[in-house]
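A reminder from the course coordinator: this example appears on the midterm review sheet, so study it carefully.

Given structure:
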């Protein structure tokens, strides 16, 4: 003969579910925290630009000039741009 178990009451079912729910919430919160860090090493980035100003002298209208700027990270953290880099062109300076 098989032994039958008594059906659980709603209070017993709720008491069983709470530890599982709490563990699930803690696991999800820990995952979000670890993934939001994005592998940052915790250091501070330091941007270095090889030229602060570029002077082409007098340039006639319609003539094309090109230049190259080297940007690097001298710090020990990850260098990230929050926005597109801003370049200002000053006329007559």
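Designed residues:
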């Amino acid at each position: 003969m098989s032994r039958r178990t008594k059906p659980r009451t709603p209070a017993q079912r709720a008491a069983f579910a709470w530890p599982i729910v709490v563990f699930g919430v803690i696991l999800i919160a820990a995952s979000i925290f670890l993934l939001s860090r994005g592998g940052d090493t915790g250091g501070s980035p330091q941007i270095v630009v090889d030229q602060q100003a570029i002077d082409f002298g007098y340039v006639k209208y319609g003539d094309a000039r090109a230049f190259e700027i080297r940007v690097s990270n001298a710090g020990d953290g990850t260098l990230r741009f929050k926005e597109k880099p801003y370049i200002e062109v000053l006329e007559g300076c």
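The radius of gyration is 31 Å. The first strand starts at residue 47 and ends at 49.
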